[in-house]
Amino acid sequence: MRQGRAADDVPLMPLGQSPGNRRELLPKVLWIGVWLVFLSSPVRDLASGHHSTGGTLAGSLGLAAFVGIYLTLVFRNMSRSVLPARLVGALIAVLGALAVLLSLTLGSHWLGLFVYVSVACGATLPQRAPYWTIPLTAGAMTLVGLHVGEDEALDLVILVLLIGFAMTGIRHLVRTTVELRQARATVAQLAANEERLRLARDLHDLLGHSLSLITLKSELAGRMLPAHPDKAAQQVADIEQVSRQALVDVREAVSGYRRPRLADELAGARVALTAAGITVEVPAEPALEGVGEDSESALAWALREAVTNVVRHSGAGRCTVGLVRRQTLDGPVLELSVEDDGSGGPGAAAGNGLTGLTERLEKAGGSLDAGRTRHGFRLVARVPADSPADVGSGA
Question: pTM surpassing 0.70?
Fold first, then answer.
């Protein structure tokens, strides 16, 4: 059981990611070690005894230097500390020189070293350099083969080209994988930020409206309590109902399922404004044929925020809500207007709400205009609409 669990705990090494510990390094080392099979021919040649003691020693040192440089270049792509481009080019040049020298002095068994030169070119050189260095490596091996073993060189030339360009393709695949992984992380971060903004807007709009209504009804209940306890009890019952609905709305908003309906918000606006002692004109239930859910939801949020601002900040005595379809140069739009005669304006606390509304409407393809008029404050929200039928408006 312990052995099985240990095997399950060994982390897989993602493509294009540098190893962070020894366990992650092991698969990379094994993968690179497989390609060292082409060294079997030079090693057998050294062990055959066909060369003098000095030749065998020189060949062993040259082979050790060749393998060391090759592994340095390959591991360079797996390391977080990257070698300079000039140093990479110099090491590949040394690698090629060693392959030529060892093949010319020790025979055709050493032509397989050019395979490693080709792999190093494809795996480490930047941009388009592999597209000419790999054929150059194959050409150099062919020329050397004319002196030490033409048949062996011809057998290896296709292999040198194929493996070199295959490494170039693998390198592009690794780079693409890394870029995709980074892009996926960026998209996830942006999605998380957008979700946080959505929750912030929803909670601001929901709690601002509901708490304002609860505050107003609490004040009314306090004033009615001595002389009209029955009316005060009705206000307390309304407070309980609003509180419960606010709790439901917050839960739905956090869950991401809530889509406010414009008809419900129109009815709620009438109740909230009337409770605040403001004379209100609200259109009848709207006809929303052809209006998408996102557009309707954005208008509903705009109405809720506008009514909350009127109740809390305007000091108005009259508020008019209008809803009408208009034909514009960009196509038909559904326009919601909320206008009051107050002198307080939207207030400092309304800034975040209006900013959130602008973001909601822009996301639905609409726009928001808000500002003071000669007689008070006016907010106009527009969203795209499909059919040009009039849905009515307030006075």
Answer: no
